[in-house]
Amino acid sequence: MYFLPNRHWKSITAYGILYGMGMAQQVSELGPPVHAELLSVSEVSAIFRVSKMTIYRMVHAGELEHVRVGKTYRIFADSVRGRLTF
Q1: In 10 A of CB 7, how many CB atoms?
Q2: Above 90 in pLDDT, residue 52?
Q3: How far apart are CA 45 and CA 53, in angstroms?
Q4: In what helix (H) or strand (E) does residue 74 lie, and over which residues does it extend?
Q5: Domain residues for 49?
């Protein structure tokens, strides 16, 4: 789980997350940045047609890959797509 300094990011780089925290040298060793689409808990609950509390439970159980943005959670769209395919 990563902590992001900006609450309003919809698209981030998987390795570039830590650039704003002064860890650019360590992060650059991981390879080229990869863009990832992020979804809010409300958006994911609408996709799965379940309550937001169910999504929070899935996040806390580690069933959905996510990042923490301030006090909110953003869930990787690839993680959601992975759960939708059987």
Answers
A1: 10
A2: yes
A3: 9
A4: strand 72-76
A5: 3-84
How many domains does the chain fold into?
1
- Whether residue 4 has pLDDT greater than 70: no
Length of the chain, please?
86
Angle, nearest 10°, between helix axes 77-84 and 41-48? 10
Q: Which pTM does this prediction carry?
A: 0.61
Name beta bridge partners: 59.
Answer: none
Dihedral over Cα of 64, 25, 13, 38: its sign: positive
| Span 14-50, pLDDT tens digits | 444 444 444 444 444 555 556 789 999 999 999 999 9
Burial tier of 61 (Cβ tally within 10 Å: 0-12, 13-18, 19+): exposed
Task: Tell which residue, 15, 6, 79, has the closest CA to residue 47.
Answer: 79
